[in-house]
């Protein structure tokens, strides 16, 4: 696109799909941002492939907390 700037969404998509084995799913939105009465809320998208916190099979994810004492 000579002479045209990419939008932030286009830049994000371009960066997330640039790796050799990248797919369109890699560029899928991972958060949903809403604003109501001046309050901004950021939520992890329901379909997000990557989520914060311990992954499946980790003791913390299964509700098991190891005591190091």
Task: Summarize this entry quickly.
With 69 residues, this protein is of the alpha+beta class. It is 13% helix and 17% strand.
Explain what you see:
With 69 residues, this protein is α+β, with helices and mostly antiparallel strands. 13% of the residues lie in helices and 17% in strands. It contains 1 helix and 2 strands, in the order H-E-E. A two-stranded antiparallel ribbon has the order 1-2. Strand 1 (31-36) and strand 2 form a beta hairpin. The longest helix is centred in the N-terminal third of the chain and has 9 residues, at 8-16. The model has no long low-confidence stretch (mean pLDDT 83).
Shape: flat
Mean pLDDT across all amino acids: 83
Which class best fits the helix and strand makeup?
alpha+beta
Beta-strand percent range? 15-25%
The ordered H/E elements are HEE
Radius of gyration: 18 Å
* Sheet with the most strands, sense and barrel status: 2 strands, antiparallel
Question: What is the terminal-to-terminal distance?
Answer: 60 Å
Given as residue ranges, the uncertain stretches (5+ residues, pLDDT < 50) are none
Biggest β-sheet: strands ordered side by side in the sheet: 1-2
Number of strands: 2
How many helices? The count is 1
Helix content: 10-25%
């Amino acid at each position: 696109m000579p002479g045209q700037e990419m939008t932030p969404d286009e830049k994000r998509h371009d960066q997330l799909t640039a790796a050799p084995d990248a797919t369109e799913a890699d560029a899928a939105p991972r958060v949903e941002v809403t604003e109501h009465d001046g309050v901004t809320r950021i939520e992890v998208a329901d379909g997000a492939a990557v989520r914060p916190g311990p992954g499946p099979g980790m003791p913390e994810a299964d509700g098991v907390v190891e005591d190091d004492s």
